[in-house]
Amino acid sequence: xxxxxxxxLLSSNLTFSQFTxxxxxxxVRTKDKGLVVSAHPLxxxxxxxxxxxxGNAYDAVIATQLALAVVYPQAGNLGGGGFLVGVKNSGxxxxxxxxxxxxxKSSGDMYLDKKGNANTDLSQxxxxxxxxxxxxxxxxxxxxxxxxxxxxxxxPAIDLAEQGFSLTEKEAGLLNSQMEYFNQHxxxxxxxxxxxxxxxxxxxxxxxxxxxxxxxxQNGAKGFYEGKTAELIIAEMKRxxxxxxxxxxxxxxxxxxxxxxxxxxxxxxxxxxxxxSGGILLAQMLKMSGFENLEKYKxxxxxxxxxxxxxxxxxxxxxxxxxxxxxxxxxKTQLLxxxxxxxxxxxxxxxxxATRSSEVGKIxxxxxxxxxTTHISILDKEGNAVAVTTTLNGLYGSKVxxxxxxxxxxxxxxxxxxxxxxxxxxxxVGGEANSIKPGKRMLSSMTPTIVLKNGKPFxxxxxxxxxxxxxxxxxxxxxxxxxxxxxxxxVNAPKFHHQWLPENVLxxxxxxxxxxxxxxxxNYKLERVSQIGRTEMIVIDEKGNAVAVADGRGDDxxxxx
Length: 561
Ligand code: GLY
Hints:
The structure is a single chain. β11 and β12 form a beta hairpin. 34% of the residues lie in helices and 15% in strands. The chain folds into 2 domains: 290 residues, no CATH class; 225 residues, Glutamine Phosphoribosylpyrophosphate, subunit 1, domain 1, CATH 3.60.20. The protein has a 7-stranded antiparallel beta sheet. It is built from 18 helices and 18 strands. The radius of gyration is 22 Å and the shape is globular. By secondary structure, the chain is α+β, with helices and mostly antiparallel strands. Bound molecules: glycine (GLY). Glycine (GLY) binds next to loops.
């Protein structure tokens, strides 16, 4: 019956938004069709629809992000930012950095109280937490690699916003869990608030958001960064303690940066450079565990996990000390990923005992972890690949919706070290390299990555999860390359995470008890958590057979051309 309705839908003028029985597809194998993997079935379908209309991977990724801004407001966004890594069938490799920037009126001490203590409530919630959004500029920078006009790429999102879509159980629950914060941080009633509890199947209609999308359709990026939308953002800033100005919005620019490219066991890894720490951390971790021939151990065995945790410990200590916006710091990337440096870093590895974090960097206590953001992996039938990770930072960002424009604003300012040594909401400690300066981009962990074999896409991968992003991407890649797991198991097998501080190692439920015991004997402190990340992965073999896997931990779904 579901299949029949699905076919009916494809052959009719009905849009997915009118269809309440949402079809989540977790794995697809195909050869000659494009594939889109994202956090939401309607967004994956929006991307797939664009591929069917003749668009390429870059068209599809714009449409998918726009649809996520409607159907996945917890992280999909117009009011946030992110990173894109692309590899074209011509071999061209490129990145687009559409990370938010610190407003002109920001300063290094803007979140410190009179005693010099960091007030993280201000960097995490409300209008002062907002960085200048980069996503819309990112869509237009991507357009030069695409084939279709932006007008067409916006239409699926406009339909979803105007006509509404039905909430999944998870989305309804998440909206209910945040209602108190929406009430606290919004002066006018938003479409996300209601007196009764949201339920699965409720229809969420977003008329204001549809109007904003239409302004972008009519006026291009200026439909967001200038004119009515910009004025509505500024009016929202003035309803509280926001500092973003019209000039900040007008001056926002993406940065097109050279990707980090390095060899891993004959595969070419292409990932995101600073201001995301993701690519550097990935290179450091893969290279350090490479010194121990990881492939000779079993997946999630005590030996393999210990090696990987120790690689993670050393990489995250470097993150805190050296990493930040490359336009503002002395960029040490080449040194940090060099074999010579990493060999010296690895000398203290002891296979019989956990390294203390104090031996690889100065100890500072750390609070909680959190896991938001969203990732898209796409392959088109012409062999173009793209990986995008995009975010509002926390769940629904700052919780502030722009009145009249209908979208959430980010709380990305919290990714700066608001006071060097004081950890952000993901528990990451930043040093001076990541201090706040006007126009500067805050350090990120997002790790959109494409692995090439013989110059062709082999793995397209990424995940949300704050500081767990680089470690999840790392595990997903070694799961395929070293442990020879299937794409499905590479995504869904239990993951673990360590980040130098705190000292403990997070393990997902169902993590093997024998491994936990073996690690505890070596002095590791383990902490069980319900889930880590939501990885979207496409793996392509040398004959061009592709397998797309949407993480089983959420509503994530594959769209097929
Ligand atoms: N805000 C999440 C990240 O940038 O990694």
